[in-house]
Amino acid sequence: MKEYISSQARRILCDILSKWSTLRKINNYFTDANIQLADDFEELPPLASGQRMHLIEGFYRSLNFSKWNDSKKILKVYEYVLFDLQSEINQSDEKDFNRILSLLKRDGILYNGGILHHETSHMELNDLKEMVEVLDVDHLAEQIARIEKSVEDDPCLAIGTAKELVETCCKTILNDRNILYTKNADIPDLLKMTFASLKILPEEIPDSSKGVDSIRRILRSLTTIANGLAELRGLYGTGHGKEGNWKGAKGIKSRHAKLAVGAATTLVVFLLETHKQQ
Description:
- The chain has two domains: 7-118, no CATH class; 124-277, Up-down Bundle (Four Helix Bundle (Hemerythrin (Met), subunit A)), CATH 1.20.120.
- Helices cover 63% and strands 3% of the residues.
- The chain is built from eleven helices and two strands, in the order H-H-H-H-H-E-E-H-H-H-H-H-H.
- A two-stranded antiparallel ribbon has the order 1-2.
- A hairpin with a 2-residue loop joins strand 1 (109-112) and strand 2 (115-118).
- It starts with 6 loop residues before the first helix and ends with a helix.
């Protein structure tokens, strides 16, 4: 399985920290990023390379670098270290700073304004993938894979699949809750039934809830996102036959597909998390 942060990038971080940082500071870097020592850390034999590398290895062992959620945590450590390196002025620190950025760039990780992020704009799909694995929803996993393959080269397919992703999410939740829906139910109907089953319809949020107006606006915005996806799919996405001289696809670009995918994924993650927590 592909690792989001390569072993080479992890090794350079380990080398640099063991060279100039203290044990206390290393511990702070990782714990501030919400990373804990591996459960078997006390049983690990000491490394010949020293206590600092031994401590870093203990933190590394608690992470799965093929999981995006774990990889996001280690990126926070890199950010802390890069900030400290950038605060120094000697040539050695500048060299280490550039070495880290060079290796992370190979992994598709870019550094802007003190923040590390993946060069693709749809990495939220990785959060959804991990959730789908836990829920064991094969059809959702297939749609995610189709989106990943098409978002750059076939934006129309990505938009059509993003709309299907929302539909499948709603049907999955309704099926799990034994709620019947008609075969030809469209996105507005499915979404309203799903919101109702999760007790998150905007009009059902109690007036006494803190920030009730803001919560209602956000929930209504999520509904608008889904309806917009359905309309966009009708205009540009796959799933409907077009006339032979149809030229609409020429107007749609990868950035439009990424917008649609990002919006759909935000909605689906929210619904599945709510369903899972309940």
